[in-house]
TrEMBL record, chain A:
InterPro entries named in the record: QCR9, QCR9_sf
Compartments where found: Mitochondrion inner membrane
GO cellular component, one term: mitochondrial inner membrane
Keyword S-adenosyl-L-methionine attached: no
Keywords recorded for this protein, A-Z: Electron transport, Membrane, Mitochondrion, Mitochondrion inner membrane, Respiratory chain, Transmembrane, Transmembrane helix, Transport
Keyword Heme: no
Subunit and partners: Component of the ubiquinol-cytochrome c oxidoreductase (cytochrome b-c1 complex, complex III, CIII), a multisubunit enzyme composed of 3 respiratory subunits cytochrome b, cytochrome c1 and Rieske protein, 2 core protein subunits, and additional low-molecular weight protein subunits.
UniProt-listed Pfam families: UCR_UQCRX_QCR9
Protein name (database record): Complex III subunit 9
Bilayer disposition of the protein: Single-pass membrane protein
GO biological process: mitochondrial electron transport, ubiquinol to cytochrome c
Automatic annotation (TrEMBL), chain B:
Cofactor note: Binds 1 heme c group covalently per subunit.
Keywords from the named record: Electron transport, Heme, Iron, Membrane, Metal-binding, Mitochondrion, Mitochondrion inner membrane, Respiratory chain, Transmembrane, Transmembrane helix, Transport
Known partners and oligomeric status: Component of the ubiquinol-cytochrome c oxidoreductase (cytochrome b-c1 complex, complex III, CIII), a multisubunit enzyme composed of 11 subunits. The complex is composed of 3 respiratory subunits cytochrome b, cytochrome c1 and Rieske protein UQCRFS1, 2 core protein subunits UQCRC1/QCR1 and UQCRC2/QCR2, and 6 low-molecular weight protein subunits UQCRH/QCR6, UQCRB/QCR7, UQCRQ/QCR8, UQCR10/QCR9, UQCR11/QCR10 and subunit 9, the cleavage product of Rieske protein UQCRFS1.
Organism from which the protein derives: Phaedon cochleariae (Mustard beetle)
UniProt-listed Gene3D superfamilies: Cytochrome c-like domain, Cytochrome c1, transmembrane anchor, C-terminal
Tagged with keyword Heme: yes
Name assigned to this protein: Cytochrome c1, heme protein, mitochondrial
Amino-acid positions noted as binding heme c in the UniProt annotation, renumbered to this chain: C102, C105, H106, M225
Length: 58, 307
C-alpha cells in the first residue's frame, strides 16, 4: 500500500477524520502564515513601528 | 457540476464559437466596399485623433493648468509604499505639534486619549496626557457641569464650546476639526504640508481683508489662519531640530494617522491578502484545468447496436 493510499484510508475516507484534519491543518497553517507575513511587514518597516521605538519611552 | 453541464450541452459549450460572430458582423458591415486607401486614411485619422486626445489629457493632468488653484507637490512620505507603515516616531512628534500649536484653535473631536496607547505613547504616558487636560463632565447632584482631569476614555477636548464661539473668536472663519482632515482635503497630507509651509506675500493686485493671509495652496488664496509653524516654534522632547518643515511633516503624519488609524493594519492585511489569494488562484486554476481536461478532450462516437 502506497503512502497516498495510506493517507486516504486513515484521513480522507471518513468525514469525521477529514473534518478534524481540515480544522487542525487550518490552525497550524494560519499560525505559520501569520508569522511569515508579520515578519515580512516588520522587517520592511524596521524602526518605524511602535514596537520598535517603544523601548525609548519605558 | 461540470459533468452535468457537459451532459446537457454536449461539447458545443466548450468550443469557441467566436468565428460565427465574426462572420455575422462582417456580413452586416458597410466598410467592405471601401477602397484600401480610404481604409488606411480613416484608420490613420482615427489613430491621430485618439493619440492627440490622449496627449492633451496627459499634458493637462501633468500641470493641471486649467484652473487657478496651486496643487500641492507630492512628497516622499515614508508611508507612501504599498507595504510601508506610518513612522510612529513622527506621529509622536506630530502629536506634540498638535498639542502645542494647532490645539489652540482646532479641535480633534474623534480621537480619544486611549487611541494613543500602542501607537505613539505608552499607557502611562497617555494617562498623563489625559490628566493634563480638564474635561467637562456632569451634571453633578446639583445639575451643574463641572471640570475634572481627563481619563483614557475621554476624547480630545475642543478649544471652543461650539462652532459659533469658534467663528466669533476667529473673524468669522471656522477652524475645521482636524480628525479626518487628510481624507477630507484634495492632496491629503501633501496638502497639509504645503499649506503649513506655503505662506508668502500676496501677488500685486490681490486685496486681503482684515485678518486674512495669503496662501497659494488654499483655494482662493485668502486664508484666515496665520502662519503657525516657524523654525524653533516649539521644542521636541526627543531633541529633533524643530525646523518649520520638520514640524509640518510631523503634524501631517500625525493627522494622516488620526484620519486613518487603521493604516498599518490595512497594509499588513494587504500582504496577507496578496499571499493567500496568489495561492488560492493558482490552486483553483490548476484544479479547473485538471477537471476540464477530460471533458474538453473527449470524443463522442455513435455506434448503432444492430450493425
Amino acid at each position: 500500500m502506497g503512502i497516498s493510499a495510506t493517507i486516504y484510508n486513515t484521513i480522507f475516507k471518513r468525514t469525521s477524520t477529514m473534518a478534524l484534519a481540515v480544522i487542525g491543518s487550518a490552525f497550524f497553517f494560519e499560525r505559520t502564515f501569520d508569522l511569515g507575513t508579520d515578519y515580512f511587514f516588520d522587517r520592511h518597516n524596521e524602526g518605524k513601528l511602535w514596537k520598535h521605538i517603544k523601548g525609548r519611552y519605558q | 457540476m461540470a459533468a452535468t453541464v457537459g451532459r446537457i450541452c454536449g461539447a458545443g459549450l466548450f468550443k469557441s464559437n467566436s468565428l460565427a460572430t465574426v462572420n455575422q458582423i462582417s456580413s452586416y458591415s458597410t466598410t467592405r466596399e471601401w477602397t484600401r486607401g480610404r481604409k488606411a486614411f480613416l484608420g490613420s485619422l482615427g489613430l491621430l485623433a485618439g493619440g492627440a486626445g490622449a496627449l492633451m489629457y496627459t499634458l493637462d493632468q501633468s500641470v493641471k493648468a486649467t484652473d487657478l488653484e496651486l496643487h500641492p507637490p507630492k512628497n516622499m512620505w515614508s508611508h507612501n509604499g504599498l507595504f510601508s507603515s506610518l513612522d510612529h516616531a513622527s506621529v509622536r512628534r506630530g502629536y506634540e505639534v498638535y498639542k502645542q500649536v494647532c490645539a489652540a484653535c482646532h479641535s480633534l473631536r474623534f480621537i480619544a486619549f486611549r487611541n494613543l496607547v500602542g501607537v505613539s505613547h505608552t499607557e502611562e504616558e497617555a494617562k498623563a496626557e489625559a490628566e493634563d487636560q480638564m474635561i467637562e463632565d456632569g451634571p453633578d447632584d446639583q445639575g451643574n457641569m463641572f471640570k475634572r482631569p481627563g481619563k483614557l476614555s475621554d476624547y480630545f477636548p475642543s478649544p471652543y464650546p461650539n462652532e459659533e464661539a469658534a467663528r466669533a473668536a476667529n473673524n468669522g472663519a471656522y477652524p475645521p476639526d482636524l480628525s479626518y482632515i487628510t481624507s477630507a482635503r484634495h492632496g491629503g497630507e501633501d496638502y497639509i504640508f504645503a499649506l503649513l509651509t506655503g505662506y508668502c506675500d500676496p501677488p500685486a493686485g490681490l486685496v486681503l481683508r482684515e485678518g486674512q493671509y495669503f496662501n497659494p495652496y488654499f483655494p482662493g488664496g485668502a486664508i484666515s489662519m496665520a502662519q503657525a509653524l516657524y523654525n524653533e516654534a516649539m521644542e521636541y522632547t526627543d531633541g529633533t531640530p524643530p525646523t518649520a518643515s520638520q514640524l509640518a511633516k510631523d503634524v501631517s503624519t500625525f493627522l494622516k494617522w488620526t484620519a486613518e488609524p487603521e493604516h498599518d493594519d490595512r497594509k499588513r492585511m494587504l500582504i496577507k491578502g496578496i499571499a493567500i489569494f496568489t495561492f488560492l488562484i493558482a490552486t483553483s486554476y490548476y484544479v479547473k484545468k485538471l477537471k476540464f481536461a477530460s471533458l474538453k478532450t473527449r470524443k463522442i462516437e455513435f455506434r448503432p447496436k444492430n450493425n
